[in-house]
Records
---
Amino acid sequence: MRVFLTGGTGFIGSNLVLRMLEEDDIDQIALLVRDEDKAANLFSQILVSDRRLKLVPGDLCQAATFDLDYDIIIHCAAIRMPESEKSAERAVRVNLLETLEFMHQAQRSCSGSFVYMSTQAVYDFKANTLPVPEDGAIKPANTYAFTKFAAEQAIPYIFAGSSTRWAVLRSTRVYGLGVGTPWDQLVGKFCRESSQSGVLEVWNGDNKFDLIHIKDIGDLILQLLAQGDEKWNQIYNAGGGATYSVDRLAEICREGAVELGLTPPAIIRPQASGPEQHFFLDISKARDRLGWSPKVTLREGIRELICKAAGIG
């Protein structure tokens, strides 16, 4: 199978590259990159050792010129938060207008599968009963979510009548150790502080959300690619299958530090700011139709991150 991937230097995309290269039936991965030097540095060892990975310099604004005659196209590229709020015009251009042109070019060139990475932020979590299924009420939370949902809506129409099958994956928050681990986000911050006997600041500790490990995202995409046509042309939630409060997340990080023989971090709880929020995706559709379920527990994922940050193992 030949794969064309956008967003390959991002957290999801770069780790998906590594996961796909573990598969013998992947013959080539063409990686669309705006910054060729960054990509070459990120994948320097792989580019030498595995000739299946190919860098394709370019930008989504050039979508009409792309040769997309591939078996699989996976679209991860996007302007995300907070950049999408700082420059809404750029986010709309890249996430929607250029993405639509990319989809049209895929429809013209590809006769295989098109996978579109979307976000849980399209849902109205206040109006829905948790966990939220794929047909739950929609209310995009920000510019990023609006552009992702708008592009989602175009997919069935663009690929209607073509031989290309499609799928949309609405992902919850992604965490875990891998290429480009987001140490500046909540889980990464807590794990880094826990490795240094630091301080975990728990704002709005009652807020609850689910998390999916980066390895489980890769496994979900590969499980999807192995399915017959009847499992395609669908939207699937990609979540961790369980919900945790910020308070519980801090406690798990503290317990992880203790288990590793580290001095545990202090946990402080400043006064809450903002309304209480809860986010939780129903993943029963992916479980039932694709035979997929998340395998990495939050405790395992956190332990791995703390070990890395502490230089253990």
---
Amino acid sequence: MIELLWVGLSEMLIYPLWVLWAATAAHDTPPLDPNVHQSPIILVHGRACHQGIWKPLRNFLEKEGYQNIYSLNLDRRRLWISAKTLSEYEEQLDRFIKKVIAETGRKPILIGHSMGGLLSAGAAVRLPESIEAVITLAAPLEGTEMVPWLQRRGLRLNAIDRAMAPQSPAVIAAKNVQVPLYTMSAAVDWVVWNRSSAPTDVSIPWRGHKGITMAKSTFKQIHAWLQEIERGEDN
């Protein structure tokens, strides 16, 4: 009960304020260094969000020695949704993945939150030879029952929201990921109701759909997965 109350308070008050502040504080990614012998990391934000939410994770990973960490804004303006379909985001992400590979000569690891996780899984299906691994945070890889629930109550949803419904083409495609896939769920998620069925799934306690991107336990788990991916590369 206490966990539920804390998540509710943080999701409704603390994290919305953080997202607004981070939109103004988001820093640009430094130039990619082709001499770094690590897989580049691409951070993919979720619906109606921006690259600034990744600042705490970026800071953590940089302290752990990771370089060539890139985050992109899927929308032209932060917090302003410019795409009309999920395929527009898919095309943008695919172009960026190819750009990173051309500049570094290495396959990237994708880390995506919410819709960004679904996009990352989809990219791994479309470009299986170009992705090293995928890590998702609170992503609707099984879709979310929130979409049909809202539709049954007469709410008109746009194409991007409908793409996150169970059995949508994007969700069905994401089930065919052939690269290493690591998934993370929030203990209390009021957006993505369907938890990932991936065997690697880890639940982060005391965090909701947005707060999972800022938890120290999230960062430590991602770091552990990155180390596991690196060991796989060396074998």
---
Amino acid sequence: MIPKITSIIIFLFAAPFFVGAAELYLDADHSSMRVGDIIEVSLMLDAEEDVVNALEGSVSFSQNLIVRQIRYGNSLIQLWMQKPIQKGDSIVYAGIVPGGYSGEISSHWKGNRPGKILSIVFEATKIGDGWVQVNRDSIVLLHDGIGTEASLIVRDMNIEVTEGEGIGQKEVDWGDKVPPESFTPIVIRKPDNFLTGKYYIVFDTQDKNSGVHHYEVKERGTDYIVAESPYLLKNQRFDQDVTVVAFDNAGNVRIEIVPAHLGLAWYDTILTRGILLSIVFSILLIISVRMYKKRGCGHSKT
């Protein structure tokens, strides 16, 4: 398991809450498939009467299923502490919902309905009994200011993989024609050394449909490179534009260009550093002059 979400984070978004029993369960359109078929299984949260604001856990699966895609673009999670990733035969995740979450609300129905945390697209590879399981060390924390762990019910899913005709589909259909959301990459200098630290570019965006798949960075004179944030710039002079491209799982792209030097954080531009150094130098000069005058006055009195 990844490190527990601390109650300090929960306290920052505290509000009144109701105590009940939340439920994590798995849902799909069908539970029968044949070898080669794919199925999308969603991890759902039914908050019941609770108001929650943090979740952490994992989902494991049988060996006759392989992961084709992990989707979380339309998740109820607003801030990921650990974006869903595959680790061995499990998918791990952790995130918070500032302000709390009690369910999906709409004018089309009464009350609150369960919300989606993430979904996993599996492909069946072998005949037999398959399964997807909500691991029992998953936790849901209440929106009570101290991060109280909610009473939790979990529900797993069995999948029958057969040799004959199944009702699954063969290809992943994202149905997504919308690129990731616009974002603003920022170039910063590593904080451990203000004057000589190295330049990094920081970036992040969301895609509410199929989810962000990966990023690529291109500096002048180089090819596009698959990158993660923060990314260490090869051109440490940062005197040329940098291009950052976000790809979603459907293949749509969002391109953002960071102009040379203009993408720097305000405190890390050459002009700003020059001004700060000038100020420091001026202060030191003033102090030196005053000390010299005091010494001069002291000698004249004697």
---
Amino acid sequence: MAEETRILGFGRDILEPIGPRAPRGRIFWKVIRAKSEMLTQGERTWIKERAWVPEHVVPLMETISGGEAHLRGGFLLFHGPGWVIFVGYPLAPAQERGDLCQMILDVESSFRPYRMWFVGEEIPSILEKRCSERGSDRHFRLDLEGIGQSWEPAGRLGRSISKVRENLRVEVGGGFAPAHRELMADFFGRAHLPPRVKRLYEEVEDYLSSSTTGILLSAWHDKMGLASFSVLETWPERFSVYLLGCTSRERWASHSSDLLMAEMIRLSAKMGKEFMHLGLGVNQGIRRFKEKWGGYPWIPYEECGWRRRGSAMERLGWALWGKF
């Protein structure tokens, strides 16, 4: 079920070069990146240990957005050419972090982006009248306490998985094959995905090829080929992330996504994860799938996007980048 999850795909919509002046923009962006405050290895480890939402998964967010991660006052942000994503889910306790509203203003002042996004549990008061794009949802969580290597889902769900296991084998790891691309292309032809979600699918092959923590799981039928695939992200210390999934619409693939979910749950528990992030609710069908597995709506997800007018010189610079 490729609609089973949703994760942020900010940045790419304004990152790709447009027009003949784009190469100059890319060179300029490399200069900006070289001078900005990149994360140290120690900071990456600190974030990895304290991460509690998918937006804190630095390698994933950097790859999907195309930006670079920064720490400001106990908050994480991602910066690209002319844009910033501010992650309002704090990494530091209240007594150790800065004021959220002041942090947003400081980031806007120092990076001076054309476009800026905020994601967090609630929209800060200073942004209420500035948002031109809004979104609301909830993160879904699945607790892994008590799940061992021999765990099997109970009841009707367990019986369905036992039956489908007779015809399918699960491959953990490996890279994208032509069959994965064909399955994804077929899904694109019959599903209406939001641009950011589709972009995530389009980027996942490159992400897996460079990631040491993203895991591809595939369900194969000996005669019919690929039935389903899913991607699990395991970078955070405490949890894993069900990143995405894609399933054939053929009858023989029935419950293949459930088979992979069971495998991801066992794998996450084996790695010592406390819980799995199942992504956002998105719609009723996706919520039902997550709730079927014991997932429950956890923390709110609020999204806000806005544009800065900028000075005349800034607007000239943006035009020279060929981005806007």
